[in-house]
Amino acid sequence: MYYSVRKFQTGDWPSVWQILRATFAAGDTYTFAPDISEEEARKTWIETPLATYVACFGDGHIVGTYKLQSNQPGLGSHVCNCSYVVSPAARGRGIASMMCEHSQAEAVRLGFRAMQFNMVVVTNLAAVHLWKKHGFQIVGTLPKAFRHRRLGFVDAHVMFKRLTSGTDG
Predict the structure, then answer these.
(1) Domains of the chain (ranges plus CATH)?
(2) 64 to each of 31, 41, 58, 113, 114, how far by Cα in Å?
């Protein structure tokens, strides 16, 4: 199957919202409220980040999305943060992996020197495994930092990867 990643376009929103709504409603991987409004989701996923991208099947059908932004302002702005969501129907096809690779190349192109994931829920074993496969290390574990919708309070990892090998950071 052929998939590609491109920048988000305004007409993509209905498909992106459908994917986000299903994922956030599950309450098991993201800190967004399960009942997040469409307006708040659009602001968070489209308007606030530096860039938003979509993963498409060969026919243009959107099957995933990710956003890229600085993890911190000012003196921490050389480290980026990404969030990825794949349509429930398209999981297990390598789409998250493809978006992770794409995001790292985009981050370097945009001048970022590292990437950090702030809250990788420990029960999201597929994500933890995938990010490790892509070279991310667990640099800390936050005890009971995520309120899982079914399991209650569970730990979350902070994961990090240097994207450049410069001597100044």
Answers:
(1) 3-162 (3.40.630.30)
(2) 18, 15, 13, 25, 23
